[in-house]
Amino acid sequence: MTATTHRSSNPAAQLGYDQPPARKGFFTDTSICIGCKACEVACKEWNMVPEDGLELSGMSYDNTQGLGASTWRHVAFIEQPKSLGGQESNLQHEGVDALALAGGMATSPAPSTRTQVDLGMPGTVLPGAEGDAGTATPFRWLMESDVCKHCTHAACLDVCPTGALFRTEFGTVVVQDDVCNGCGYCVPACPYGVIEKREGPTGNDAVGLAQKCTLCYDRLKGDLEPACAKACPTKSIQFGDLDELRERAQVRVDQLVAAGETGARLYGHDPDDGVGGTGAMFLLLDEPEVYGLPPDPVVTTRDLPEMWRRAVLAAVTMLAGGVAVFARERGNR
Amino acid sequence: MAECHPVGFQWVMEAKAKGAKVIHVDPRFTRTSAVADLHVPLRAGSDIALLGALVNYVLSEGKEFREYVVAYTNAATLVGEDFRDTEDLDGLFSGYDADKHIYDPSSWQYEGSEVAAAAGHRDAQYSDRAGEDSSEGQQRSGGGQSHGSGGPSISGDPERDETLQHPRSVFQVLKRHFARYTPQMVEEVCGVPQDVFRQMAEAITANSGRDRTTAFVYAVGWTHHTVGVQYIRTAAILQTLLGNIGRPGGGIMALRGHASIQGSTDIPTLFNILPGYIPMPHAHRHENLADFVQADAGTKGYWGNMPAYTISLLKSWWGDAATADNDYCFDYLPRLTGDHGTYNTVMRQIDEGGGGYFVVGENPAVGSANAKMQRRGMANLDWLVVRDFQMIESATWWLDGPEIETGEMRTEDIGTEVFFLPAAAHTEKSGSFTNTQRMLQWHHQAVEPAGDARSELWFYYHLGRIIREKLAGSTDPRDRPLLDLTWDYPTEGPVAEPSAETVLAEINGRDADGNPLSAYTALKDDGSTSCGCWIYCGVYADGENQAARRKPGQEQSWVAPEWGWAWPANRRILYNRASADPAGKPWSERKAYVWWDEDQGKWTGHDVPDFQPTKRPDYQPPDGAKAEDALRGTDPFIMQSDGKAWLFAPAGLTDGPMPAHYEPEESPFENAFYAQQSNPARETHSRPDNRYHPSGDKPGSDVFPYVFTTYRLTEHHTAGGMSRFQSYLSELQPEFFCEISPELAAERGLEHLGWATIVTARTAIEARVLVTERMTPLTVRGRTIHQVGLPYHWGSNGLTTGDAANELVSIALDPNVHIQETKAATCDIQPGRRPRGPQLLEYVAGYRQRAGIDELTGTEANRR
Lengths: 333, 864
What we know:
heterodimer, A: about 325 residues, alpha+beta, Alpha-Beta Plaits, 2 domains, 4-stranded mixed β-sheet, two-stranded antiparallel ribbon, 10 strands, about 15% strand, disordered N terminus, B: about 850 residues, alpha/beta, Barwin-like endoglucanases, 6-stranded mixed β-sheet, 3-stranded parallel β-sheet, 26 helices, about 25% helix, globular
């Protein structure tokens, strides 16, 4: 870990680390994810994250349902009435709305002139509306392994009053159990809803404390790649120097677009986005919303300096006004 | 493959990244389909119709790799005049005995010769050769594994017509046989539209030939059928016609259900074969070693060396006690008297009772067909030993099994003494895994097993040691086989674990001086060599554990010969002589693999040539040549006594020399191909606890109008012993569910996430409902057919519990390998939870009554 050429891109460099290594991160290529969830299990095994509930969600094969204090990797499964570029699924549906008919619910999609973003929920769009009866129904099954984004501008870190959250020499954002006081400020601060306080019986590990992906800080210290990337059989999760991953991601997305996968796009790769780019970026095949990701995330502390400036100005103005009133009253005496 | 073998699937994804086209054939749209280029949903149980149509497409469009087919297959060989095809007999081959439901394969022979199989039923014609009457028991028991090695015996020289024009040439027989397997029939029978079929056919044929090869991958989706072996045969015929065998990027990969299932057939846990696919001897009258090898050893091909392989095995097991004078202790081997397979054993347990049962790393109360029968069998034993990581259902059925709930069993009435012994995991012991490509990889112990957990090696070694101690001094001749065993493995560590590497060294074999052998070609038939499994000979060459080699791929050639060790002789591709043309030159630069080097006078290339190293391509065997010397320089399939790949199997199969589409034991449809409904040689066992459904147009078939198929999920492992007790896996798939299409949900009023009851004549189970478009209705023979998907992992114990899908499955078996049909059967599905207690029995009895089911249902020879 002796990359000095990339140091400029590592936010750790601005924090006084002496010759930090190149910024590390993830590139998750969802186009080759097979939804095996090995990342989820490897993460829990390595980091000793407890079980997060035994609930059949009914949301395709996604029973994990989202990131949280006890889920640091989450594989989303999206069944979509759309075709994958170059794929033929050959499913033959007659335009029956799965959930509506099965549940006896009436679905009458609200008439709208706006283009609706398909959220990938099974049965929200009548398949018959997209294809002729008798021909193959458009269908694809998207899978995406989500994780903490390790933002360049990390709001969780900004708001942490104890210093439990800190920026590592690898440019990642890590929370320390033994420093966290459980105030929970970081929870609403995260624009992705990643960090959470662990619930459970008092006395269990880290209950009441903020928890999230550490990008396997301990493994990185030992020159090992994070557990999820190590376990991923198809290299959907790639770990490495962020600058290099960014280049690799661009090559891959260009390749997919050229091959007709026009929905392919990168997410979190742009240093000019609302969080200054992320340490964990993704290649998606549809709008971020489809995967449950915010389309335009903004670091929630972005406006804090301005707010503080205004607050101070207001205070000064008020103070000045007060002084003026006081002075006048005095003068009137 | 992505669902059940995600780690192996990385190579498919890698191939895809390099431009390979991935086609996925499956009734369901799975995680494999999600990344495939083409998903072909079909009706479960119709694969031979699809594969047969691919064969017909190749033959009728002239897409076969002609030079390969003429030179390396039996296409030119003439079939005897007595043979009659399904075309002549409307779905039957000649030799069928309608009373016994078995075939006499003698009319399937080549013209002018007699051949025994390379694998499988090598013994089927034993009686003829040994001059005895054939018996049904012999037919039923012989079924060996059809994969791996094996060899034919042949007498005489079969006649050939290299122009492939003779009407009785295998090529013409094949052409006529498959002519009715048309794209129209695929659409009719499989529910696969003709244009989808054509797309598939064109992709496969365009990607086969001199420059390109296509690989097939299958798992139990092909094998778990009453005609499962013939599914694989159809794929083998297709791949052989296309020249995709023995060449890089080709082949047919059999994916296994666990680590080292390949290993457990190489060194078998099966009743009918010995290590290295040597058949288990039958209880033939007066049989001795000479009779045994005479009946089964080939005179041509490597099976001609069967005496050396067998005697070395006997020397390995009985050491100095095995001498030429006592037939090398051949009489110590048990003999077959019939089918001693799992299901037959279970039925004997129920019917006769008594005896013991070792259940090791299996969970038959959940994982085997007709789970109720499995439990009833276990309830009728003297003793039962369950070795597992967890308290699985097979260890607790006597306390809380489904029969206790229904009142069919009472704990206090069960006499079986049950022993539960905790087992060590693979990380807690050393040993080898053999994977599907026949590669052995060694794993080293990482930690000592916790508590009383012990390895299988520990358990059996010490069990044997204690039994031998108890028998010491016995003069009873029946104890000699145990007392004479070589059973002297050194033990090590705190729990006295036997040295696994010592066992590996014994399997590898030793010469007369005790030195490790380096290749099976060194094995002798004079008792001077010992070898525990001839195909593994060389795994301990030079006294080193070759399976433990882990040289990274980037530090060696692309064939990676120094990663692990592959049998035989560290060959990575079998029959690789076929990767070169008859003159010994690679078929193409792109697919060069092994070739003849004229200057050096030997075969060379990227892999270990699967051929005698200095046998010239123009070699012609002299008169009287034996074994491998009797094969020509152009005969790559060296385990076959004719050296050819078999498009037509004159021996070795119990249900026909060529595949034919038969409907599953339970099907909503009549067979559109022939009057013969289902595999005429399939094994049915109609009994009150194992009744079958009416099929096709038979009255009552509409009571069970849907097809169900069982399968695994990535998140769980087989019958759940390794996953349902793990919170990290249980939370990923926390409940038993069934998968159905929106259309079926509408038809039956099933609610997403609600409950469904799934019913067969065996019983009814309940599952949560997942409505998904991944399950598609299909149009078959003009009707819409719905399929119900059932993962089979669940049982009553563990962190996530549910009914077991195998409760629904009947015992109806493939006649070659006695495997159950879990992949296609019929059922009903209704909303709501199933009845509890005795009401469940009444509920299912009502179904049987409405369908008019009796002991004859589904057992007929099934001719319309």
